[in-house]
């Protein structure tokens, strides 16, 4: 399951910073950050899922907003018209907003919406759509929601991300090293360890693994800054990251 770390400090030069690990089936193809949805305009960018056409993470440079979706574990019956990919959710969140008629046709999800003055967490558990604004500070978000210490990797590593200090600039700067160092330390664990962040798990016969790392920073007066690195193999984080253009 995906893991996202968010730092939120309203009023600062870079009020939102995010580090996200995307967990997906290893053979599922995707494209790095780009404007893959021309119908939404050139300012909408994201990580493109070639199979379903949506995005795990999307941003709108024109409004300085971003959103990222994480899977949940609840199961319910498939709608008569079939599933709608959860990849439409981040794109809707940064453009037109969530449509309840679309939400009820998706599998369950957690959504994090990011703006300079607000970080909102929304969950869809198959029964109800619930939202809450996150307070300023550093938060670690998984399939269970934000700061859920019952999740072993949150209990172990969230305090370390808090103590490391939130990055205060565009991805790629030295101030991101403390968060990346915590992530590298976590990656010394076996990828199936309960405490691992860089993971490889099997659920219902399907293997999910951490396949990419995304760093995002948001300023209220400019486009969203995004960098993504492919991970060379499931469950492994290299010492030096090869950030894609």
Automatic annotation (TrEMBL):
What Pfam families is this protein classified in?
A: TANGO2 (PF05742)
Show the InterPro entries listed in the entry: TANGO2
Looking at the record's lineage, which domain of life comes first?
Bacteria
Kindly provide the name given to this protein in its UniProt entry. Transport and Golgi organization protein 2
In its UniProt entry, the species of origin is given as Labedella gwakjiensis
